[in-house]
Specification:
Layout: H1 13-19, H2 24-31, H3 36-52, H4 64-74, H5 89-103, H6 108-126, H7 130-143, H8 151-175, H9 179-187, E1 193-194, E2 197-198, H10 201-206, H11 214-231, H12 241-253, H13 256-260, H14 265-314, H15 316-325
Antiparallel strand pairs: 1-2
Length: 329
């Protein structure tokens, strides 16, 4: 999900000085080690966790120029001596523990449950994709001074959190629909024969183009009535608007055969509920706009007729002369 996760990049000299400079406190901690390779290895682990948010399985899996820059700051003439840092296996772990204590870093295991709950909440509220939630989880951990886990561990948390949030969304929407209405909803995806074409009921309800006429208004009202009859009483106020719109967008842009293949069935019903609710809102707007347009048109026509009749009654000769001199339309 993040190619740079747990990895060093390529750094210029200016970036080296910005990210990996050792201050007086750093030097004090490093100076407590015996032998150059231990001092250099300790410094490598210290800047690693500060920059990446984690200790590496192989603490020396860092750019050579980083080791050389740290050696330069510590006055160590031979940076290659750091290879001896791994001779004693426990040294790296002891140093990592010391750095963790010194910086007040929190073990991932201590915040894992809280992070998992945060991921579910984010997925529930936003419907963001795995990459966005993964990045958010990294920021969440860094803000709390918690050590980052391996990338696989964090990916699994994100995947599971999104699955739980999706299941909650489907259950929330489908659970609002009476069992007797499920069949009506799913029937929207059927394709009855319509002349020589096979058009699903959902496809018919999607169409919202009407003429600005009394017949067009009647058609728009009938469409709204059909939509309201399906899920008009369903309350979706507990569902985050972004999640509802996300499901509806999928339902509005997908063909009926594609929607019929959605599994589990609860997912299919949830998409249809969201789609019909959003369509109902749009259908209401269509009716109001048509009604407003027809009313304005009729009222203006009536006002023009009344004005013309009044002028003709009061000033017949002037009005007729003005009309006669006006260019034809």
């Amino acid at each position: 999900m993040d190619e740079g996760y747990g990895r060093f990049g390529s750094y210029s000299r200016v970036e080296m000085e910005r990210f990996f400079h050792l201050d007086d406190e750093d030097r004090r901690l490093v100076a407590m080690r015996r032998r150059d390779y231990n001092r250099l290895g300790f410094a490598v682990q210290m800047v690693t966790v500060r920059h990446l948010g984690m200790f590496l399985p192989d603490p020396l899996d860092v750019p050579l120029e980083l080791v050389e820059y740290l050696a330069e700051q510590l006055g160590i003439d031979d940076p290659s001596c750091v290879k001896s840092y791994l001779d004693r296996r426990m040294t790296r772990f002891e140093h990592a523990d010391e750095v963790q204590q010194e910086y007040g870093l929190i073990a991932f295991a201590d915040v894992e449950a809280e992070l998992a709950a945060w991921i579910v909440d984010q997925a529930w509220m936003t419907g963001d994709g795995p990459k966005a939630i993964f990045s958010g989880a990294v920021a969440w951990l860094r803000a709390r001074q918690a050590l980052l886990p391996g990338i696989t561990t964090l990916e699994k948390l994100v995947t599971e959190g999104r699955r739980v949030a999706d299941q909650r969304l489907w259950s929330q929407l489908a659970g609002q629909v009476p069992a007797s209405t499920w069949g009506t909803l799913l029937a929207l995806l059927d394709a009855p024969v319509d002349g020589k074409r096979r058009v699903s009921e959902l496809e018919r309800l999607r169409k919202g183009v009407f003429r600005a006429s009394s017949k067009g208004l009647v058609a728009a009202v009938n469409r709204l009535a059909d939509l309201m009859a399906v899920v008009g009483a369903v309350d979706v106020s507990a569902v985050p608007p972004r999640r509802l719109i996300g499901l509806a967008t999928y339902g509005l842009s997908s063909k009926a055969p594609q929607l019929r293949r959605l599994e589990p069935r609860e997912h299919r019903v949830a998409v249809l509920v969201a789609t019909v609710k959003v369509l109902s809102a749009r259908a209401t707007d269509d009716v109001l706009e048509l009604f407003d347009l027809l009313m304005v048109t009729d009222l203006m026509s009536k006002a023009e007729r009344e004005s013309r009749d009044e002028k003709l009654r009061r000033y017949p000769r002037v009005y007729l002369a003005t009309r006669a001199s006006s260019p034809p339309r």
